[in-house]
Design a protein that fits this description.
Blueprint (H helix, E strand, L loop, with lengths): L1 H18 E4 L3 E7 L6 E2 L7 E4 L4 E7 L3 E5 L5 E4 L5 E12 L4 H8 L3 H21 L4 H5 L3 H19 L1 E13 L2 H62 L2 H11 L19
Length: 274
């Protein structure tokens, strides 16, 4: 009796090992039928949990969570600018797979996730980089246009891989572009020359602005002096017109003490008495 139950346990264990497959959380299973007329990739994916799988079928698991992959150092991308200058760059990508597209992706590439990423996705990125870099000068990539460069690369890769079933979150530069040393030296010298020219131009503008300020100040002072002189001239003119003999005599009377001079030497007194 014990032998019978033991055989059942052993048989159940064998079934568990060989005919049941566990799909882990964050993964989707793809079933490949290896026998009969229906052999090939099944269109229905397997989700989290235990699944009965016939012995003539194989299950491949694909992650559906966000993945990140980088190509650095020996795996870095190399490309050329429109001038034919060689550049290399360490690049990374963040993406995930649409669960419903996993059977089609496996049917298309017949590889696991690592191979698909390192080979096929890399090829899409390489083609987009070469296409975008061929339209740019090395100065563009050395400056702020590198953002435009990666926008173009990301847009192309995202559009092409979306049709397959990949959702690209972003493609990014790790560190900086690797330029030839001679090119870096030449570009830095050019940037320094431009900065010096801009500094001299700014200094010239400041000098011109200060000169205009001084001219305006001097002009204002001159106008003030002129206005003051004109005012004084007008006042004198009005005063001269208002001075009459009657006014002079009236002012003299106001100051006279009432005594006539005792000696006139024949001079007529300035006050005309009537």
């Amino acid at each position: 009796m014990i032998g019978f139950f033991g055989a059942i346990i052993i048989f159940s264990f064998i079934l568990w090992i060989f005919f049941f497959k566990m799909i882990s959380p964050g993964y989707v299973g793809v079933v490949v039928d290896l026998f009969g007329d229906a052999k090939g990739v099944e269109t229905e994916e397997l989700h989290v949990g235990m699944h009965w799988i016939a012995p003539w079928k194989t299950v491949y698991q694909f992650p559906i969570f966000e993945l990140n992959h980088t190509w650095e150092e020996d795996d870095a991308f190399s490309f050329q600018t429109s001038e034919g200058l060689a550049i290399s760059a360490d690049i990374g990508i963040t993406f995930h797979i649409r669960p419903s597209s996993i059977p089609n992706i496996f049917a298309k590439y017949r590889r696991g996730m690592d191979e698909i990423t390192h080979t096929f996705i890399r090829n899409y990125i390489r083609d987009a980089i070469n296409k975008s870099a061929s339209k740019m000068k090395i100065e563009d990539l050395y400056g702020e246009s590198k953002e435009t460069f990666f926008d173009q690369v990301q847009s192309q890769v995202r559009g092409e891989l979306s049709e397959v079933g990949f959702e690209i979150t972003r493609i990014y530069l790790i560190g900086r572009f690797h330029f030839p040393e001679t090119v870096v030296t030449a570009l830095n010298q050019k940037i320094e020359a431009i900065q010096r020219a801009q500094q001299r131009e700014n200094e010239l503008r400041e000098a011109e602005a200060e000169a205009k300020k001084q001219v305006a100040k001097a002009s204002g002072q001159a106008q003030c002096v002129l206005l003051q002189a004109e005012s004084e001239a007008k006042a004198n003119a009005i005063l001269s017109q208002s001075v009459t003999s009657e006014l002079i005599q009236w002012q003299a009377v106001q100051k006279w003490d009432g005594k006539l001079p005792t000696v006139t030497n024949g001079v007529t007194p300035f006050i005309q008495l009537k």
